[in-house]
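Input for the complex:
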Amino acid sequence: MKKNFTVHTTEDVPGLGMVGGFKVAGAACDIRNKNDLKRLDVALIVSETPATGAGVFTTNDVKAAPVLTDMAHLSRSEKIKAIVANSGNANACNGERGMADAMAMCKAVAELVGSKPEQVLVCSTGRIGEFLPMQKIEKGVKDAFEKLSDSEEQSRNAAAAILTSDTRPKTVLVKVEFAGKTITLAGMGKGAGMIEPNMATMLAFIACDASISQKLLKECLRFAANKTFNRITIDGDMSTNDTVLCLCNGSSGVDVDESDAAAIEAFKAGLLEVCRILARKMVSDGEKITKVIEVKVTGARDEEQAEKICRAIGNSLLVKSSWFGGDPNWGRLADAAGYARTGLDFSKFDLFYNDTAVLKGGEQVVENKDEWRRIVSNKTFTITINLNQGSAEEVILSTDLTDGYVNFNKGE
Amino acid sequence: MKKNFTVHTTEDVPGLGMVGGFKVAGAACDIRNKNDLKRLDVALIVSETPATGAGVFTTNDVKAAPVLTDMAHLSRSEKIKAIVANSGNANACNGERGMADAMAMCKAVAELVGSKPEQVLVCSTGRIGEFLPMQKIEKGVKDAFEKLSDSEEQSRNAAAAILTSDTRPKTVLVKVEFAGKTITLAGMGKGAGMIEPNMATMLAFIACDASISQKLLKECLRFAANKTFNRITIDGDMSTNDTVLCLCNGSSGVDVDESDAAAIEAFKAGLLEVCRILARKMVSDGEKITKVIEVKVTGARDEEQAEKICRAIGNSLLVKSSWFGGDPNWGRLADAAGYARTGLDFSKFDLFYNDTAVLKGGEQVVENKDEWRRIVSNKTFTITINLNQGSAEEVILSTDLTDGYVNFNKGE
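Predicted:
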């Protein structure tokens, strides 16, 4: 299929201020209560004209207050004026007071930007089960508002303010050209590793200058998140706060109309690219990991079979431990693929490290043994399984499991 | 309900030779190819009169050759004369030659004990993807046959011969008295941790002196295994070789007839007790673990909900890491319970360490904080969650996740 668009990706850019009509800032208000006003912990993203908003949220039964608040705000189908986020405290498992605090954050922003509180979205990440220090946060929000800018500095500050155990900020800029028009999208995110030492939260915020209906944006965002953020695994845990938000303010004048298939295709590709890069950055910065492994299952009866096997392998402690040791242990891979219980036929099972065959029809290709070892000693490699049972495929990104992860997360 | 039977349990007994009409032995034939004829690696269990046999097997799509062989043999509904088992090699993922080797082990035993090969069951545990050293094994089988005895020494040798990364043998003796009769059951098992360094296999063999139909034995064994071996988790991985076998030879003259509810109840209780003790011993000897934790969910809508939440908690890397550190991290427990996605209501969520309340209706009982810490620093404790949504409950046994586990399993 010929693509009628081109995607240009730039990594390691400042952040969301690079998209027309968006101003951002990061501020520090010592949410962690460490007398540290250098560590940024409040991020503010404001669209000059109210934007179409959509979100994808954790499916955990235990949803943090900001998640419930955003779901309610987006369900009103009003335009969104701003996103406010804090790190250091997840505002999760805090009952009614947690809900009131999340709403108070929205109100504080709404008063400053001149919108209804329901036109503000809120995210929190950090410790669970502790109330937000609201006085500090309100001060942080005011500081951030005063600093709002499209400068590189404030873009970087916003991207830094949402980090927890991440070792580096995660940003990306994508431009999609189609039919003589250009859509610009920028994203910032924080990673899916455990946090300080309580929660594993994944946050991603995306700003875009196209105009689009909320319904269509939601569909596209769900599609992109499912193919990217839902295809990464570090520890298999899913947090109470995981959130992906996208705002489209139309400042480019480019309209992604429901009747314009070419525009939709281009927009979707751009959104997918932003999510793909952020997801990869999250995995690569997973807690104390040393390797990033792509697990690909092809030749499956259907995508469900392929996905189940990808996840069984990507979440197996034995497999992940062997990656840490650089051990080309195909037995554990076959075992994990088998306990996904999808009805695989081992006599048709092909397995490759990168392009090097390990198993063909369930039998070892022993002459490649030295090459397996060489590949598995690398920092990144691909494991491909061909089930030879159909034509569906899936891929996920996973990491090794290290003694460092266990010690980092053992707490007190 | 009044029980019409009493169960007497003795742990740390020699093994299966203690049951009337069974002879056992352990032999060494250097399957690991380490010029070590001290390490026992072949176990033989023979019933003087052919016995009713039943098995419960791994549900992994990739089943090892001995598993497939035993399933075929048991499906013939013939009486079983013997079980032969080896450690050091799993005979898994070995294609047709693996199947032929498993059958050859049965034949070797059958010739010695005077039965059909189909009346012999076979188990293997150890390395995956390597062919069995059949000459050595045939020699080991002959040695074991010559040593067959009901002596303590050979009972202990048989229990030792199936071990891999286990640090100690696992045996139990159970006597059930009812209506003036006594049924004796003995069990031996090996643990569910990764093996040498390729597979996590759980094996359990049970000998009993009652007589019973194969259909009823199968039902009772399935029930008991499901409540015990299927309720333990160390790393969540399930092997290609997991097998539980039970032989009932009727030597006691006690008949567990399908029409005799009291006898069935007593037999079931005895079998459950054997499996329960073996399962607990397997968990307690899990690879490099330091703690055994009972996770109990009560007040569930149904058993499925309770079990899903038990498993999400018992398999969470973050939860297991926090246990290792002695950190009473209820946030991770609530998070894991939530991502089981069973529709739990966090505002009704009660959580206890032993009998000490941590959460009541989703809110912290902060005054107990010091006590939480004290309990979680113990080598064993119980976590109880009351969902307050119904009356169903489930329990599983889990362990902590240690840096030692990761380093032990990282391979090369």
